[in-house]
Amino acid sequence: MSKQLDLIIVGAGPCGIAAGTAAEQAGLSCMLIEKGCISNSLVSYPYYMTFFSTAIMLEVGGVPFTIPNAKPTRREALAYYRRVVEHCGVDVRQYEEVEDISGQEGDFTVSTRKITGTENTYHASAVVIATGGLHEPNHLGVPGEDLPKVRHYYYEPYPYYDQDVLVVGAGNSAVESALEMFRNGVRVTMAHFADSIDRGIKPWVVPDITNRLDRGEVPMYWRHRVTEIRPSSVLLRHEETGEETEIKNDFVLAMTGWRANHQHLEALGVHIDSGSGIPDYNQETMETNIPGIYIAGVVAAGHDANKIFIENGREHGCLITDDYLAKGSVK
After folding, report:
1. What 3-state DSSP class applies to 206?
2. The whole model's pTM is what?
3. Structure confidence by residue, pLDDT tens digits, 187-198
4. pLDDT averaged over the chain?
5. Residue 330: pLDDT over 70
6. Burial code of 254-289, b = ≥16 C-beta within 10 A, e = fewer?
7. What are the structural domains of the chain?
8. DSSP H helical segments within the chain, as ranges?
């Protein structure tokens, strides 16, 4: 039987790692369980992306994030968070998925299955859910979305050279992918249900995309939604007039955001707001309505992934550790 831990943290993204380092530095015993690799969420980011935040605002565990430029790249961030885990001695179980969490405050049982099929059982006084917000894409919900040419992720422009690509959305992912493809021989078109790009666009990207749109170099269908995806075309409909337009198309990149995984929270009895998707939790302690069950990182933001990110989500670990210690729960 495994020993009783103070905390088990489900998820080893930046915010999960921050929670782990906070626990370790407070003298608590903890373990991170990750179904993928360390910082798995960052692995799925575009290969050449640059973060909005400066390096210092992404630091966790008191480990300096030293790079030559102000804002880190995806590759630099992946190397940094791995180094934090090594430096702080955080116990991370990679490629091990949590299948069940049961019990009550002071005595939780976490059952897992490794990628090899091996099953394990761990015990902890409290559990932190830090599974991020990239579990499932926000689907368009239209005919043809299951065609192989439709993708909800973007890594690099090269597979789309000399192709007609529709980018759906006008957030950072949509805008940056459109610009990168435009500069690499892709015929890019965009469609967005609103009449302007999202307010949260990285400031240094705004002039670039604005110029491309104003010059017609990247055609934009404002106030349009996708209504049907066909093998060689896409049907768009204007929000107000209902007028439909069919455009030639080889690939659709639906950059419409992602949703968090609430499976374990709901199974434990945590209330999830049906409208916002936000779990019922105390913002001062990060504890949910179920004693001993905490949340950290983007999962606390519900459907609005722009509300919580690494910059502010990294602080959740200290709140959790402080509350755990205040309860006198240390074994």
Report:
1. helix
2. 0.89
3. 999 999 999 998
4. 94
5. no
6. bbbbbbbbbebbeebebebeeeebbbebeeebbbbe
7. 4-135+258-326 (3.50.50.60), 139-254 (3.50.50.60)
8. 14-25, 40-43, 74-88, 172-182, 206-214, 263-268, 310-313, 316-326
